[in-house]
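REVIEWER CHECKLIST
Item 1: Sequence provided? yes
Item 2: Single chain? yes
Item 3: Sequence as submitted:
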Amino acid sequence: MKIFLGVIGCRLNQSEIEDFANHFRALGHQIVSEPAHADVAIVNTCTVTIKAAADSRKQLRRAGREGAQTVIATGCWATLAPEAALDLPGVTKVVLNQNKGSLVADLLNISPEEISALAIVRHPLPGERARTRAFIKVQEGCDNCCTFCLTRLARGRARSVELSKIQNDIQAAIDGGAKEVVLTGVQLGGWGRDFVEPKRIKDLLAGVLSNPTIPRLRLSSIEPWEFDLSMLSLWQDERLCRHLHLPLQSGSDRILKKMGRPIIVGDYEHILEEVRSAIPGAAITTDVIVGFPGEDEADFEATKSLIKTVGFAGGHVFTYSPRPGTPAYNMEGQVPHQVAKARNATLREVFKQSSRAYREGFIGQQVKVLWESSHRLGEGKWQLSGLTDHYMRVFSVAETDLRNIITTVALDAQHPHKNALFGRIID
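Item 4: Structure as written out by the authors:
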């Protein structure tokens, strides 16, 4: 059987479709890059913003339109709007998040025990969703109460994956050729708290790093109040990427309180000071939301000032997306869309300048780059694009295809059109 796996949204969604692919392949089925070539199309949907929900519906419609006989909607949007998902042309089934773990077994009419007994080797997905990095799901659900977010409703309470299962998944990825492992979850910093004998994320990292065959290990997004400062000593291991994504969402304490974010700006800045002291040159990125209900000009200016002061290596700016079912949806002081849109554009430019300044400090240095993609230029030349462990994008030219290989690169200059650097491969 030929199967197309589509994904919208976060790295956790990407991790889940990689799991589906591993199981289908182990059972003799083929993963294809387009729904037009598939007997079955499975789309892992997202609902974090209005746009993500719309993109989810678009991909489901496309799967049905292009001829897949069976189209299965799963993920967060499908879980919160199952009837709407079934009403889409071509969609034949909805699998809620809480049933996602048995999706492959149910579709193929086999037992979960047969799935568990499979010898898994992880290979990159075909087409545009191919990744040299392996996203490993370590945790599911969330116990935080952010007033703008639907994830807790869609994913449920926080549940951690056992370390032994995580270690097996990582080994399968390495056996399949992965050079970088990314640990991902909805509430990554809460890993282990729900165990009978509670653990901390520091225990997770130490357990994963005990495997000497892992070339590179990266953390995905982690809430700043859940970042365990005691684990900073683990960054003495050079395999642990010097990049942390610590989403703040606003530079205004007043707005953070309305958002239900249990942190103040001063505490966030203290965390960054500790990180930078322990990990010199660390790349710190963040998320901010503009146009949250009640955000006035002073709140916006506080966020802009913080970004400039902190010197982030990069960041994402989201315009507040009113989601029915969240406390923020009914809050007073909704910000006009055009005002929020203008604020978004302003902060994107501030992040762009901050990111450029961060990259500038690396020009003239030598770094390790994992080449993620390659394009043949002709005459024995290849255009390469990859990432440093600081999560900086680097472009180079080589005489051979070095995709999924880590090399040392001398960084020469900023890219004139992209948030990236040029470099020369020196080994």
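Item 5: Key structural point noted by reviewer: The mean pLDDT is 93.
Item 6: Recommendation: ____
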